[in-house]
Structure formats: C-alpha cells, structure tokens
C-alpha cells in the first residue's frame, strides 16, 4: 500500500463545489488502495482578506496575533472537506497544526518547520481514515500558532510527506505542471515532464511562482518526489525529483522573471576596508534580503555600489542606506523600482560554455540593456528595465530553443 500526500491550493478549494471536486479526487486515490493525507490551503483570496483585516486593525500587528488570525482560512477548508467526505461515506478527520503536531520555530509570519510528530496521524491512517491537515500553519514549542509565509502550504505538504515517509507528494494547482516559462507571457511555453530539484529550486528562487522555494529545499533534502498536477484535469503533470542519468541534462530548461525587484545604487563611495560591511549591516539587522550586489572597479579611491532588494523593502532599505551613506561620505543614493530580473536555468550549464554569451547576445539583438548580471552554477540572471520583461522572456525562450522538443 502506498502513502500519498495530496496538496490542493486556494483555487481548488474556492467554494463548496470545488471542495466536492477535491473530495472526489481524494476518494479516487483512496479507492486505488492508497493511504491518503490531504493538505489544504485557504479558499482563494481568503488569506489576503485576513491579512488586510489585520493590517487595518493596526499598522504593525503583533506577530503572534497576526498568525493566529491569518491561519484561520485553512481551518475552514480542512473541516469542510472532512464534512463532505463524511457525507460521501468516507472516514475523514481534519487536523490543525497543533493537532497534527507540526512544530516550528518562533519566527512569526515566516516560521520554519522543525519536526512533525506523526504518531496521531499514523494511528488514524491505520484505521483507514483519510487525514486532512491544515497547510500554512504550525505551532511553536510553547503552543503559539505560527505561519510559514505566503504559499507555505506547499511546504506543509512536503514536510508531512517527509515525516511520514510518503511515496509521493502530489501538489494540485491551477496549472498542469511546471513550464519552460510563464505560459501567460509566452505562448510557446512547454510543460516539462520532469525536472531536477536543483533546477526547480533555482526557478522558484528566480521568480517562478509554482512552488515555494522552501518546499523544494525540503523535498530535495528528504528526497520526496513532488508531482505538480492540475486539480481540474487528469492529463499532464511534472515530476520534480533527484537528477538521474535518464533525465536529459538540458543546457537551459527554463526562463523565469521576477518583477519584484528594486535597484539601489550608492554613488561615489570611498573605497576602503569596512565600507561594504557598514552599508549592509543595518539592512541585515532589519531582515532585508539582498539579492544581487555589484561593486564597480575603484577609480581614484571611489567606487559605486549597486544592489537589489524586493520592492516592499525598497523604502526602508534606501532610508537605512542614506543614513550610512552620509556618515561614510558617499555622494548620493539612487533608487530605481522600474527594473526586473530575467534568468535562464539549466543543469547542463555546468558542462557547457557559451550560455552567457548567447543570453547577452539575444538581449542585445532586441536593444535590451543589461544593468546587472549574476550567475550560479546552473543560473544566469540579468537585471533589465521592467518594460522589457515580456520581450526578454520571449527572446530568451526562442534563443535557447525551448519550444522545439517533443
Ligand atoms: N493560504 C496561504 C497563502 O495564501 C498559504 C498557501 O496558500 O499556500 O499564502
Ligand atoms: Mg500556493
């Protein structure tokens, strides 16, 4: 008997009819002879609504209360699914995080799962019960409710699958798999049959929305195969797994973009030891994540330093940087929010040269100026003007021949 964890996102549980559709899919897996654990998100739009309520009550709501509030959307969907499965004649039980013992650290709004105590769940599975767990939420060691960050129910599902040693974690969503790029931007985008954890991780980090990066990290660590599928169609799907010899090592397997970027430049920075540390320490103290950093070659003892942050952090980051800039004698700070990051990703890059040249050439042919570049073993990212995002994605998709393969 296989153990299957199935996760359904907000669009799949948006109303009673859709939850009935989920119930039928769950029953199908159960009737096929599997033990089934289901993880659900809140109804589409519900978490946004709850966040708005919290933020209209106070500009900076207390983290503990915020998490207790915004996690309630999942309580609604898991109980409704249990009620519907019961009505359809199946044994089913809902579990909130404190009941399923999804233990996290205390970092409210972005808690990390430390462990899942599976005893209670296993007991119920042994009795033939369909177990339904609220995604997105956890509980710290003191019993406070926490949440895992937006899109966190994917992570809940993989954590449960890892803890239960499940055979597969199926993530049902409103698209039928992982594509070479966003099909909403590029109509030549092609669904991938499979992709390695490393590529999926880079894609998620570089802006692909289909899976939360942390969920892929966990899946990789515990080698949980993830199957991304559509909750509305039976065909398709993409398997995210460990890289093996059968997998084609594509030079480039995907093109992603991220509009959530702001570029900050500190102009005419005195070039001496300790300056970069002084500039970036206040940012880290305020939990601002920095993506790319470049520093120009020093000319006559001065240099320019440019970095990118998420748009939501741009104001705070530039305020903090302006304070330090004044102290260290830099000339000024410039902020540009009209930028985006486009990236090409592929494991084959490790053993192929010329990928960067091809990428830069394709962008240059369209007159797209590259403002910043960063690379990893399997990724090349360029910051460009935001208005070129779609064009850049399309020309890169073409340049690397991503539409052609069967
Ligand atoms: N409901 C949460 C959110 O909207 C978690 C999730 O859907 O994964 O972010
Ligand atoms: Mg989601």
Structural features, described:
- By secondary structure, the protein is an alpha/beta fold.
- It folds into 2 domains: 3-174, Acetylglutamate kinase-like (Carbamate kinase), CATH 3.40.1160.10; 255-399, 2-Layer Sandwich (VC0802-like), CATH 3.30.2130.10.
- The protein contains 13 helices and 18 strands.
- The strands form 4 sheets. Strands 3-6-2-1-9-11-12-10 form an 8-stranded mixed sheet, sandwiched between helices. It has a 6-stranded antiparallel sheet with strand order 14-15-13-16-18-17. A two-stranded antiparallel sheet has the order 4-5.
- A hairpin with a 2-residue loop joins strand 17 and strand 18.
- Helix 8 packs antiparallel against helix 9 (213-222) and helix 10 (275-285) runs antiparallel to helix 11.
- The mean pLDDT is 94.
- Bound molecules: aspartic acid (ASP) and magnesium ion.
- Residues 9, 41, 151, 154 line the site of magnesium ion (MG).
CATH topology of the largest domain: Carbamate kinase
Percent of residues in helices: 25-40%
Judging by the overall fold, what is the CATH architecture of the largest domain?
3-Layer(aba) Sandwich
> How would you sum up the major sheet?
8 strands, mixed
What's the oligomerization state? single chain
Radius of gyration: 23 Å
Q: Tell me the strand order in the biggest sheet.
A: 3-6-2-1-9-11-12-10
What shape does the CA trace take?
Answer: globular
Cα distance spanning the termini: 34 Å
CATH superfamily of the largest domain: Acetylglutamate kinase-like
Secondary structure tally: strands = 18
Mean pLDDT over all positions: 94
Strand content: 25-35%
Number of helices: 13
Q: In terms of per-residue confidence, which ranges show pLDDT below 50 for 5 or more consecutive residues?
A: none
Heteromolecules bound: aspartic acid, magnesium ion
User: Can you identify the CATH class of the largest domain?
Assistant: Alpha Beta
User: How many distinct domains?
Assistant: 2
Structural class: alpha/beta
């Amino acid at each position: 008997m296989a153990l299957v964890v199935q996760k359904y996102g907000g669009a799949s549980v948006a109303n009673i009819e859709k939850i009935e559709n989920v119930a039928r899919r769950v029953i199908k897996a159960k009737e096929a002879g599997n033990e089934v654990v289901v993880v659900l998100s809140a109804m589409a739009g519900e978490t946004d609504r709850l966040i708005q309520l919290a933020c209209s009550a106070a500009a900076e709501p207390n983290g503990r209360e915020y998490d207790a509030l915004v996690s309630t959307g999942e309580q609604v969907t898991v109980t409704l699914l249990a009620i519907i499965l019961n009505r359809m004649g199946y044994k089913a039980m809902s579990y909130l995080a404190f009941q399923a013992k999804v233990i996290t650290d205390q970092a409210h709004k972005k808690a990390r799962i430390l462990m899942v105590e599976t005893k209670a769940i296993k007991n119920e599975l042994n009795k033939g019960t369909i177990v339904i767990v609220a995604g997105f939420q956890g509980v710290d060691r003191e019993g406070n409710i926490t949440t895992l960050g937006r899109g966190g129910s994917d992570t809940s599902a993989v954590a449960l699958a890892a803890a239960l040693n499940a055979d597969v974690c199926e993530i049902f969503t409103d698209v039928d798999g992982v594509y070479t790029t966003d099909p909403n931007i590029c109509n030549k985008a092609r669904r991938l049959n499979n992709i390695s954890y490393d590529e999926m991780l880079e894609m998620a980090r570089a802006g692909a929305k289909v899976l939360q990066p942390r969920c892929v990290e966990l899946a990789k660590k515990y080698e949980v195969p993830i199957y991304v599928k559509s909750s509305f169609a039976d065909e398709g799907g993409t398997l995210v797994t460990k890289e093996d010899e059968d997998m084609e090592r594509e030079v480039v397997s995907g093109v992603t973009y991220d509009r959530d970027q702001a570029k900050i430049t500190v102009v005419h920075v005195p070039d001496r030891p300790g300056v970069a540390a002084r500039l970036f320490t206040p940012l880290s103290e305020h939990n601002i994540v920095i993506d790319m950093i470049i520093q120009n070659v020093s000319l006559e003892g001065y240099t320019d330093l440019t970095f990118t942050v998420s748009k939501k952090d741009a104001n705070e980051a530039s305020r903090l940087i302006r304070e330090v800039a004044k102290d260290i004698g830099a000339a000024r700070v410039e902020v540009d929010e009209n930028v985006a990051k486009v990236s090409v990703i592929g494991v084959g890059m490790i053993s192929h040269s010329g990928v960067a040249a091809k990428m830069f050439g394709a962008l240059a042919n369209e007159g797209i100026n590259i403002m910043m570049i960063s690379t990893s073993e399997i990724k090349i990212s360029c910051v460009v003007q935001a208005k070129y995002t779609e064009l850049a994605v399309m020309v890169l998709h073409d340049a690397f021949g991503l539409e052609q393969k069967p």
